[in-house]
């Protein structure tokens, strides 16, 4: 009996080794793509779903994700080759273009199609109206960034001059804005989810309006890369987009609680119900796209918002900084 076991095991050894080597080869065969995200937010739910559900892995990609708080830091990371792909506001590509880059940054996929911030009041307001901001202290975002430009665009839409009708604070670093408001700075603040809902639950503030609903369709957060990277790694970009497209469809087809459970590892300190309600809020206002295509109307609206804020260096033609060929190829297959 023992001799039979020894013989059997000796026969199995080659198969065990073959299986182990095959598994290792498959794992080692994953291509690493370094992605810099401008912030960690439920706003980017499809991205986290693509990672957690293995959609990137299915395409042979391993995502090295790092959070680089703020559009300026994210773009600097991309330009200095600290990342292959950036998830950041499209306005940053326009700023780089204005500086005359030899290797322009190209928007190739749109993740979110509305603003992702909410107006949070320190005090509970039962019947909110925008004119209640007049004379208040407003804790704004970084000058020239999408949250601040959209914020000013919406305020002006409601007849409020952000630089005359209220006290606008813009000297606080992006990563510290929520903490500053929690510490007592400002009567109103713009916050992303899940922070806005967490503040509401803890009684630190109350959500009174959505900047996303007010500003309409805009390429708020897009995936972009240097033109040279897209040219040299077209196959990788296509696989990247395909994984995201699968994730967007998955998010669309599952309820918010199911989605929340999948992305919770990225928000370990956030209650599952808060995550679910945040995802539902973004879903209801159309923040999550379904095709990843950055359309020309959205691009023009972006530049209108930048122009209104006095931050548009020069209007840039849609086809100069937007490449939808790969995305369209993926969704039409």
Blueprint of the fold:
Blueprint: H1 2-28, E1 31-37, H2 45-52, H3 55-58, E2 61-67, H4 71-79, E3 85-88, H5 91-98, E4 105-112, E5 117-121, E6 137-139, H6 146-157, E7 167-169, H7 177-182, E8 188-192, H8 195-202, E9 206-210, H9 211-215, E10 221-226, H10 227-232, H11 234-253, H12 256-263, H13 272-284, H14 296-308, H15 318-321, H16 325-331
Parallel strand pairs: 1-2, 1-3, 6-7, 6-8
Antiparallel strand pairs: 3-10, 4-10, 5-8, 5-9
CATH fold annotation of the largest domain: D-Maltodextrin-Binding Protein, domain 2
Question: CATH-wise, what's the superfamily of the largest domain?
Answer: Periplasmic binding protein-like II
Terminal CA distance reads: 57 Å
Average predicted confidence as pLDDT: 90
- What's the total count of β strands? 10
The quaternary organization reads as single chain
Given helix and strand content, the structural type is: alpha/beta
Strand content: 15-25%
Count of discrete domains: 2
Helix and strand sequence: HEHHEHEHEEEHEHEHEHEHHHHHHH
CATH class group of the largest domain: Alpha Beta
- The rough form would be described as globular
CATH architectural label of the largest domain: 3-Layer(aba) Sandwich
State the share of residues found in helices, binned by percent. Answer: 40-55%
Instruction: Tell me the number of helical segments per DSSP (H or I, 4 or more residues long).
Output: 16
Question: Could you tell me the radius of gyration in angstroms?
Answer: 23 Å
The largest pleated sheet is described as: 5 strands, mixed
Low-confidence stretches: 1-27
Order of strands across the main sheet: 2-1-3-10-4
């Amino acid at each position: 009996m023992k001799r039979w076991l020894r013989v059997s095991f000796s026969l199995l050894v080659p198969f065990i080794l073959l299986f182990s080597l095959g598994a290792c080869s498959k794992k080692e065969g994953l291509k690493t793509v370094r992605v810099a995200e401008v912030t960690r937010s439920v706003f980017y739910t499809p991205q986290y779903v693509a990672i957690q559900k293995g959609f990137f892995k299915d395409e042979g990609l391993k995502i090295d994700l790092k959070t680089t708080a703020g559009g300026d830091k994210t773009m600097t990371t991309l330009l200095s080759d600290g990342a292959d792909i950036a998830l950041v506001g499209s306005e940053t590509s326009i700023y780089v273009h204005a500086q005359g880059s030899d290797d322009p940054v190209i928007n190739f996929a749109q993740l979110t199609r509305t603003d992702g911030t909410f107006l949070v009041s320190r005090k509970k307001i039962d019947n909110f109206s925008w004119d209640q901001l007049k004379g208040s202290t407003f804790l704004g975002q970084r000058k020239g960034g999408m949250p601040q430009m959209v914020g000013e665009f919406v305020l002006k839409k409601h007849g409020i001059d952000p630089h005359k009708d209220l006290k606008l604070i813009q000297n606080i670093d992006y990563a510290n804005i929520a903490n500053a408001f929690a510490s007592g700075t400002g009567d109103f603040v713009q916050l992303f989810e899940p922070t806005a809902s967490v503040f509401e639950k803890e009684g630190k503030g109350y959500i009174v309006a959505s900047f996303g609903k007010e500003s309409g369709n805009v390429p708020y957060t897009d995936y972009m890369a240097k033109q040279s990277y897209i040219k040299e790694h077209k196959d990788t970009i296509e696989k990247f987009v395909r994984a995201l497209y699968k994730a967007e469809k998955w998010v669309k087809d599952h309820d918010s609680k199911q989605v929340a459970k999948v992305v919770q590892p990225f928000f370990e300190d956030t209650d599952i119900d808060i995550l679910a309600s945040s995802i539902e809020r973004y879903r209801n206002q159309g923040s999550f796209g379904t095709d990843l295509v950055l359309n020309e109307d959205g691009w023009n609206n972006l530049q209108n918002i930048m122009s209104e804020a006095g931050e548009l260096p020069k209007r840039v033609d849609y086809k100069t900084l937007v490449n939808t060929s790969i995305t369209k190829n993926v969704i039409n297959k």
